[in-house]
Amino acid sequence: MSPTKVVPIPVMGRHSINAYLLLGRRPVVVDAGTPGSGGRIRDQIAAHGVDPTDVSLIVITHGHIDHFGSAAELHRLTGAPVAGHIADLGPYRSGRAREPYLPTGPMGRLMARSRKLHLKAEPLEPGVLVRGETDLEDFGIDARIMPTPGHTAGSISVLTGRGDLVAGDLVANSFMGLVPGRPANPPFHDDPLHNLASLRRMLDLDPTRLHVGHGTPLEPDRVRRWAAREHRRLTRLAAAGRLPTRTETEAV
Q1: pTM of the model
Q2: What is the mean pLDDT of the chain?
């Protein structure tokens, strides 16, 4: 199978919120932006010379409104099934992310006050339920879905055969993408230590680049150095009992 090409689709700003178009034998879309973004995503797919009705699958990386907000609309516009992890079925079926959000820092505390973050999206029922690592060859691309829990219980990433990792909110650029190339936490994590473990597990697979939901692509070596510092910081917070974490029972 031919190598999979990763094409960013800006949903908000130049890099603030990204979806991605994966090009192989057939196209696959990763993430669907905020509510009302379906038409914009469809038009950008077409601008890259792809018939939106040729899209074989829409992969949603997790149950936050800036990633699944237009999934139901994009499903109608393309006819493609939606894939999502079973652990985030609650948000998908209700149209609401689990709350309260657990901020990772000042940006998250500020954003948690925004009414837009608490909007309800159109509910959806994923046609492809992800429970574990899932090969996407049948959908026309050389790639696989990788469970990467921690940001949410059902967070997933997509790893292509040539090493591009479409990572959702596993990691981000600083200030929601405003500082390009600088690794940082996204504004929220349900379980920061679990998310960091998922990130380090993906880095152990030697990806060539990390394509994130907020910001420009990140270089793996720079992310590794950041992850080592972040591990030390989180370990200190956890030892002091100052690390907010959503419990497993809350996440179900």
Answers
A1: 0.95
A2: 94
